[in-house]
Amino acid sequence: MGTTLDSVRMEARLPGDKLHNARLMLASWSSKRSCRLHDLQSLIGTLHIACRVISPGRPFMQRIINLTRGVRNLGHFISLNQEFRKDILMWQLFLDHWNGVSLFLPPFTEPSPQIHLFTDAFTGAFGYGGFFNNLWFQGRWPPSHQLNPATGISIQWQELYPIYLACMLWAPLWANRRICFHCDNQATVAILSAKSSKIPRIMNLVRLITLHTLKFNFTFSAKHVPGLDNGIADSLSRFQMARFHLLAPDASPVPCQIPHFLTKV
């Protein structure tokens, strides 16, 4: 099958020669602005093989595959956009850091999600919040994150943003675990489940979340929760602190601080 299965280390990985060739290929693609159809098909074939051992890479093939749609002449030139180059960068990171990382969580990990993250985003003058195991954070929307179709800030982006922050803050606590993300926006749940979106700015967050799942070896599922059942996160996003402490009496007395650099997305 072109992959190495290691029953001692419980790993699946690309053999050394295939890994070397894939790295060389991706390096050559990172600065290209156009290519012929048959060359792009060759790249897709290489990444398809790599997906056997790097399963999170599959969503980052879809935009590359989409560039070939409707093109029949193998010699036809195809323009490569910025999103293509971002996905190539993701694949370079996958091969440099995660080829051979175990595809399995530890054998004694619970079979179903036992830890849960609740987040919420509230538009307008309010902000966002996240709650996990009595830890919490909240923040107000800066002007750059206000709803604006011209900049790619949508309701779905705002709902995904506190999930991204939670991953940046708490991923070390989720290492080798399964976690369920609870969100009251169904479109955002669909994006998380697919790990893909057609909107570039949303994909920026999806890429960062995916990298953290690999870095800390955790898996997640996304579940829609009705707004009425998301009271703790909802109270944080609305800065209703009395309501929050009533709903979560054991919560930490102080919020987790959000480093300024995490807001630059």
Q: Could you explain how this protein is built, in words?
A:
The protein is α/β, with parallel strands linked by helices and 265 residues long. The chain has two domains: 94 residues, Reverse transcriptase/Diguanylate cyclase domain (Alpha-Beta Plaits, 2-Layer Sandwich); 149 residues, Nucleotidyltransferase, domain 5 (2-Layer Sandwich). Helices cover 39% and strands 16% of the residues. The chain contains nine helices and nine strands. The strands form three sheets. The protein has a five-stranded mixed β-sheet with strand order 7-6-5-8-9, with helices on both faces. Strands 1-2 form a two-stranded antiparallel sheet. Helix 1 packs antiparallel against helix 4 and helix 5 packs parallel to helix 7. The longest helix has 16 residues. It is globular and about 65 Å long. About 2% of the residues have low confidence.
